[in-house]
Please model this.
Amino acid sequence: MEKEHQEIEQPKAVRCCDLPSNCDANQTGSVEVPATISQDNPDAGELDCGIEDPFPCKGDDAAITSTNGLSEPQGAEGEGAPASALSDGTAGEADGLSKPEGAAADEDDPPENVSDSASTDNTLEDSNEFMVTVLARGGLEDQADGTPSALSEAGGPAQGPAPSHRDEDVTAESWRRHRKHVFVLSEAGKPIYSRYGNEEALSSTMGVMMALVSFVQSGDNTIRSIYSDEHTVVFVQQGPLVLVSVSCSRQSEQQLRSELLYVYRQIVSMLTQASITRIFERKKNYDLRRLLAGSEKILDGLLNLVDSDPSFLLSAVHCLPLASSLRDSLSQILQKAITPNLVFSILIAKNQLLTIVQEKTVIEDARLEPADLHLLLNLIGASSAFQAGEIWTPICLPLFNPDCYFYAYISYLDPPECTVCLLLLSTDKEAFYAVAECKRKIDEGMRTQNALRSIARAQSYSASQVGVSDLRHFMYKPFDVPDNHRQLTQFTSPEMEAPYSSEEERMRLLDLYRYLHSRIHSSSRPLKLIYHVAERETLLAWVTSKFELYTCFSPLVTKASAINAITKLLRWIKKEEDRLFIRNPPKYSTTPNPSKSSRGGKGGSDRQDTTDNGFLSLL
Amino acid sequence: MAERRGKGAGEARSDPRGKSGMLRVKMVLLGSSGVGKSSLALRFSKDDFKDSAPTVGCAYLTQLVCLHDATLRFEIWDTAGQEKYHSVTPLYYRGAQAALIVYDISNRESFMRAQLWLKELEKQYVPGETVVGLVANKSDLSSSRQVSLQEGRSLAENKGLLFMETSAKSGNQVSELLLDIAHRVKLSSREDKGLAEWREADCVDMHREGRPRPLSSCCLTIGL
Model:
């Protein structure tokens, strides 16, 4: 298997300099294609060259449900019996693969350590030449020397964010080598944001991107992605904005797309979708940077978080493990401090959720999506300015309602350490003093219960606490916490500890998880269970109707013991459920005439007859 | 004023002085992005300096200022200079007794924008009721100065504004600025009944630092 893999990798020398920019379909079907472009509607345009995965199954993984060539993707196993599924389905193949070092070690690419690197298989080099061709044809010859490098081979290891990457030289090799570039531009081709380097300096590169988008559009189609051997380029269009990710992280197109959507939503959270649309309706070539000035850090922070925090990958919220009695008493403190038009009270520590209390009528109509909460968490994390005082700011929650603002009150409860942050969302922009008074009450409540000290003691846990040998790390996301229907999707995960204590190692593990995630959620061939032997660890991911689980074991684990470990892990999680998750998020009712001082505990959620004008006016 | 109810009530209760002798002053900081509004606010309230990220929305801080015959509780609204927040800025400066328009002496553009802010503000305030100050910040960067002292001063004189060149970084002239404003605000609100009841004893212990809670106020020491 491995040999075959390498042989196919070898004939990289095929040149397609003369590749017409519309990328002939005949050529793309073969191995000798420099770049693969996939589109929304492959039938419609002449750009039909979308064979994304010419080598559909490399077989380095024991991909249980559809091992080589099996066409039914979902078949093989039920949730109950992973062990039998494993032994039945793939015994022969998996045996060879469960050796930790041998078969799995991929010689050509040590830093990745992924034995199967499906995303690299499907293309060959010279994407840059392809780009140059397109550039030339697009009449942008002046770009041909330096700038297309955004799309050219580079593929170094991940780089930490440079201290002043706004000033980076965009023609430098180091710029090209960034693991993941993200660009935002307007439909008129105006640069709006670049993760690295100054947008101004990149305006012609972005012009090229827009040329690609428009070119495909003129054929009544939509460009979705371009694959080269080193890079994946993903395009997302949202209203008048075009977002482009140029990545050599080997993430799936789907993952990159969802990351771009986060970027879009963060922009919407600051400006609202309605106003973005309105602005560009009025003036097509408006420079949106004017409105985003000062917010680059928030977008930078978001992209760093997306790379380093699995919450985004899992679309779930990570809450800080807390004794349920403590969590309940925190919730009660929040429940008692209410004022009309308050809709969410959220307590955050160490960038993780402590508790969230919601207005009753709100939860009945809509719920706070994890993505919206991620944007809020990022906003708080990215703005050290919050530590100075109390903040009152308009903020839009794009999934809740992309066109309207909430007003957010943000303040730290434990200055000067600033680890516990209170976030109160109101629909009334004039409510600052009333909401600030709620904070005063919460302060008081926390003080009387000595809650801050308890929070400070709260910690994430270590995988060793599970008591399963060989288990190094895991991520567990239940789909439906019992009695918690339509609730915030959450996940739990221990601290990353040795050998994942360095930044690089952590990123490497996350990359492995991302890889498993992409296989599990592959749109063409989704898997339910995947046992993956990497060079330095063995991973097992499993998705059922009840949960999604990713586990990482030491490389010496056997398949049988891994299955065993998972059974134990699930039992442990069940036992710890109350501590790991927010089980019953409380609600309150901020009716216009409450006797609010006496209102508290469950009493707060009794009334539901009165509707909240402030909230309704939002909709 | 209805909107002050919550905060005012809460603080007054916890303040041993009681509120009768205290004049509450809403002061708003305006100006383009990066001129140092947040740094000034931090100097005002905590006499500290940190490199800060751009303000999101508006930050609210408080500070007590003791004059020899009155105590003023400044509620400082430090607005974001970014354009996207301009539409909501009136929310913050409405009803302010004091407004500081800040520019950066090393950035000509910010001076031009300060004049726009002034125009904007003129639509809102009633002359004589709002004390408006023009603040030329970053005087520590005088080597790369783009706006001369004279320019700023004559603009302020034309419009009848208080003028001060400050450095939030070094702290130069910052407390003087706040004092100056305090005096003017007090003058412009003579009719305030509370002032007569102000008690001298309150100011005696002003020299020690404020209480540990940063959100509560501490006092400037003033030699008047």
About this structure: The domain at 22-207 of chain B is CATH 3.40.50.300 (Rossmann fold). The radius of gyration of chain B is 17 Å. Residues 108-124 of chain B form the longest helix (17 residues). Chain B touches chain A at residues 3-10, 33-34, 38, 41-42, 45-46, 50, 52-61, 76, 78, 80-85, 88, 91-92, 213-215 (CB under 8 Å).
